[in-house]
Design goal:
The chain has eight helices and eleven strands. Strands 1-2-8-3-6 form a five-stranded antiparallel beta sheet. The protein has a three-stranded antiparallel beta sheet with strand order 5-4-7, with helices on both faces. Strands 9-11-10 form a three-stranded antiparallel beta sheet. The chain starts with a strand and ends with a strand. The protein is an alpha+beta fold.
């Protein structure tokens, strides 16, 4: 993790994603810019209770740990999202684990410094409610995750960004199977015309 000092770059992201519109008094909020490397566990590097992170570039994976110790993918994708919303609402660390799937850039808000303002901000609280509701929906889907590997593979594809699996080895680790097992299932789904191979190690679930 490294802090990005470029004011121009930070302002460009604030403008691109209309981040200031999420706050009633955005000029009272200080924003900082951080960059994370592939494989870094983002919510271990910055205190998840003390910061809100808005992803503005790169891909992340959000997952939980099953009772048997294996990871269960809740969501994977790029684009704008907020991290630390659940922790802000509950004032405690959640069970979600957020990993950088590639280089990830985030805008950061120091919650400890601005909590009093944020807790009285109806615009931000409305945004927070919507975000936490989406996380709850993801958790519900995780609880209902199927046990059969074939069904889990389809579930994985359904919840991946653009319904696309990027990297067989990486997906196999989340599905708790070997690369060979996963390739066999993907080949079977291709034969059934349910999945299309779009590149090396890349498979998309058809609508």
């Amino acid at each position: 993790m490294k802090k990005i000092e470029s004011l121009k770059r930070k302002e460009a992201y604030l403008e691109q994603y209309s981040v200031r519109s999420l706050f009633q008094y955005p000029d009272s909020i200080g924003f900082e810019l951080y960059e994370f490397s592939k494989g870094e566990i983002i919510n271990n590097l910055l205190d998840p209770i003390g910061h809100l992170l808005f992803t503005v570039e790169g891909r992340i994976r959000i997952y939980n740990i099953r009772n048997n110790g294996t990871p269960a993918l809740l969501a994977e994708g790029g684009g704008f999202t907020v991290l630390g919303d659940v922790e802000f609402a509950r004032k405690e660390v959640s069970s979600y684990i957020v990993e950088a799937a590639g280089k990830v850039t985030c805008l950061s808000v120091d919650v400890e410094k601005h909590r009093a303002i944020l807790e009285r901000d109806p615009v931000f609280l409305s945004f927070l409610l919507n975000s936490v509701s989406e996380k709850l929906a993801m958790t519900t889907a995780y609880i209902l995750e199927p046990e059969d590997l074939r069904d889990r593979t389809i579930y994985y594809l359904e919840h991946a960004d653009n319904r696309t699996l990027h990297g067989v080895a990486s997906a196999a680790s989340y599905l708790n199977c070997s690369k060979r097992q996963l390739l066999r299932i993907l080949n079977s789904l291709q034969a059934e015309n349910r999945v299309v191979k779009t590149g090396r190690g890349t498979y998309r679930l058809k609508q």
